[in-house]
Design goal:
The chain contains 1 helix and 6 strands, in the order H-E-E-E-E-E-E. By secondary structure, it is of the alpha+beta class. A hairpin with a 2-residue loop joins strand 5 and strand 6 (159-160).
Length: 161
């Protein structure tokens, strides 16, 4: 009588393990791509939120707020519940690059592109306070997102450019 053992051969087990490894690597690549795209969508969403808060501030005060270290002053808590921070890690074209600097109305030298940086423009005094007639909010998109190409972008009262 022949002794037949039931089970899988070593080759069959290796094939199954290879298929599982291939499928999991495909899923991991898709997950990384989705996370990268979600960070860019968050950046655009943050800028939309800041545009709304700044326009509410403007409607109330007849000017845009001043800034401290690239952060608009006086928006919390009346106009925004919190001020967004750029998602990390930096990715795509923003990784390792810096905002333009050296000219008026731009972030200081060596400001990482993956940070949000608010610059008020056109100061005027109303009573004892200084307000601004315009602003530029700098941010960076790592990849093409919607109709926006990757790279350094600016939010102004006229929209994103």
């Amino acid at each position: 009588m022949k002794n037949k053992q039931k089970g899988f051969t070593l080759i069959e087990l290796l094939v199954v393990v290879a298929i599982i490894a291939l499928l999991s690597s495909i899923a991991l690549i898709a997950l990384i791509s989705a996370r990268t795209k979600s960070r860019d969508v968050k950046r655009l969403s943050d800028m939309t939120q800041m545009n709304t808060a700044l326009e509410l501030y403007f409607a109330t005060n007849k000017g845009y707020p001043s800034a401290t270290n690239g952060i608009p002053d006086g928006l919390k808590p009346g106009f925004a519940s919190n001020l967004p921070a750029a998602p990390i890690p930096a990715d795509g074209i923003c990784d390792g690059s810096f905002h333009p600097s050296g000219a008026a109305n731009q972030p200081p030298a060596n400001t990482p592109a993956n940070t949000y940086y608010y610059v008020p423009v056109g100061p005027f005094v109303l009573g004892s306070q200084t307000f601004y007639s315009d602003y530029i909010y700098y941010f960076c998109l790592g990849q093409k997102t919607g109709n926006f190409d990757p790279g350094l972008r600016q939010l102004t009262p006229r929209g994103i450019r």
